[in-house]
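User: Please fill in residues for this 156-position structure.
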C-alpha cells in the first residue's frame, strides 16, 4: 500500500496488489480517527478488516464458472469471518472466552489460507497475485497463535 502526493500536496489512497484502496496515512480522516481509537499494539483489527476488503475485491475478479463461484463463496465467508470473530474476541468477558474466540479466529484465517492455496493450485487465479494475501494470512495466523499463547500463560 502506498500513498502518492497530488499536486495540491495532499496524499491520496492507492490500490494495493489486489486493487483495494487503503487510506493514505496521515491525511485520511479514517486513518486519523483510527489512530486514536485503536491502541498502537493492536494491529489485528485493521489488518483483519483489510484482509476482508482485499478478498472482496479478489472474489470479484474470479471466473464466473461454477467452480470459481463455489471457491469464491467459501473464501469470502472465511475471510470476512476473521475480522468479525476477532472483534467478538475483543469483547470477550473473560480470559477463557477470549481464548476460545481467538481459536475461532485462528481456524478462520487458516481456512482462508487454504482457499487461497486452492485458487493458486487450480490456476483459477494467477498465483503471483495471491502471494501477498497468502503472506498476510500466514502473518495473521502467527499473530493470533501468539496472542492465544500469551493469554493462556496469563491464565495460569
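Assistant: Residues filled in for all 156 positions:
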Amino acid at each position: 500500500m502506498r500513498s502518492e502526493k497530488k499536486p495540491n500536496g495532499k496524499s491520496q489512497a492507492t490500490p494495493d496488489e489486489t486493487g483495494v484502496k487503503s487510506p493514505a496515512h496521515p491525511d485520511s480522516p479514517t486513518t486519523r480517527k483510527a489512530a486514536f481509537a485503536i491502541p498502537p499494539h493492536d494491529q489485528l483489527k485493521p489488518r483483519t478488516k483489510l484482509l476482508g476488503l482485499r478478498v472482496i475485491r479478489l472474489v470479484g475478479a474470479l471466473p464466473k464458472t461454477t467452480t470459481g463461484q463455489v471457491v469464491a463463496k467459501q473464501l469470502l465467508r472465511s475471510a470476512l469471518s476473521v475480522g468479525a470473530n476477532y472483534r467478538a474476541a475483543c469483547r470477550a468477558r473473560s480470559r477463557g472466552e477470549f481464548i476460545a474466540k481467538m481459536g475461532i479466529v485462528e481456524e478462520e484465517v487458516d481456512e482462508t489460507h487454504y482457499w487461497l492455496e486452492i485458487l493458486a493450485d487450480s490456476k483459477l487465479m494467477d498465483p503471483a497475485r495471491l502471494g501477498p494475501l497468502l503472506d498476510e494470512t500466514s502473518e495473521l495466523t502467527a499473530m493470533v497463535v501468539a496472542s492465544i499463547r500469551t493469554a493462556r500463560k496469563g491464565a495460569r
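For context: The beta strands are 3-5, 11-15, 21-22.
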